[in-house]
Amino acid sequence: TKIAVFASGSGSNFQAIQQAIEDGKLDARIEIVVTDKPDAYVVKRAGNFNIAVFSFVAKQYASKADYEQEIIDTLKEHEVDWIILAGYMRLIGSTLLSAFSNRIVNIHPSLLPSFPGKDAIGQAMEHGVKVTGVTVHFVDEGMDTGPILSQAAVEVVDGDRSATEARIHAVEHELYTSTLQKLFKNEIKLVH
Ligand code: GRF
């Protein structure tokens, strides 16, 4: 299964996916990393694994449709089947959604539908929940709204954001790779 990983930041989920592939736990190949932040740490990580990177600066394009079309052309060249979002901080537009219909997956650091959008961990701590978690879901036109593929709960460490974050990231790395493996092997049934 040929995949593209989209990321805007550190890329620890990208690295966990690539590591799972190398460890034989995920039957896939990351053909390319796509980023809207040419200086993001994920670019360095991709280089360490000799994986191609397509980076773009959104404001250099007239519209979202324009940069998404360029992304599509690049993904077609690399014969990519699935788009895996891993900390990609832009809403996917109709251009990409229709080109990769039901082939775009995201990971979000909360138990959706609670705490969608930015800083889900901060939102959860602010609300005072005792349990939060991680969700892997299909991407639709909304913000963190698509059909849910898998979830895992994580206990909040009272008043300690960075410890909570560390727990969430560890669970993300495990849940994303195991969910993708099931998805690519057709082992997940959706309710909707
Ligand atoms: C993760 O928490 C992911 O759930 C969210 O963005 C973060 C990306 O982290 N969508 P990283 O760049 O993979 O380290």
Automatic annotation (TrEMBL):
Keyword set for this entry? Answer: Purine biosynthesis, Transferase
**Which residues make up the annotated site Raises pKa of active site His?**
144
Which protein, by its recorded name, is this? Phosphoribosylglycinamide formyltransferase
Q: Where does (6R)-10-formyltetrahydrofolate bind?
A: 64, 89-92, 106
Active-site residues, Swiss-Prot/TrEMBL: 108 (proton donor)
In terms of PROSITE patterns, this protein maps to: GART
The GO molecular function terms of this record are: phosphoribosylglycinamide formyltransferase activity
This chain is encoded by the gene named purN
* Function statement: Catalyzes the transfer of a formyl group from 10-formyltetrahydrofolate to 5-phospho-ribosyl-glycinamide (GAR), producing 5-phospho-ribosyl-N-formylglycinamide (FGAR) and tetrahydrofolate.
Task: Check the record and name the Gene3D superfamilies matching this protein.
Answer: Formyl transferase, N-terminal domain (3.40.50.170)
Q: Name one Pfam family in it.
A: Formyl_trans_N
* Pathway(s): Purine metabolism; IMP biosynthesis via de novo pathway; N(2)-formyl-N(1)-(5-phospho-D-ribosyl)glycinamide from N(1)-(5-phospho-D-ribosyl)glycinamide (10-formyl THF route): step 1/1
- Respond yes or no to whether keyword Ubl conjugation is given for this record: no
Residue numbers binding N(1)-(5-phospho-beta-D-ribosyl)glycinamide: 11-13
Q: What class of enzyme is it?
A: transferase
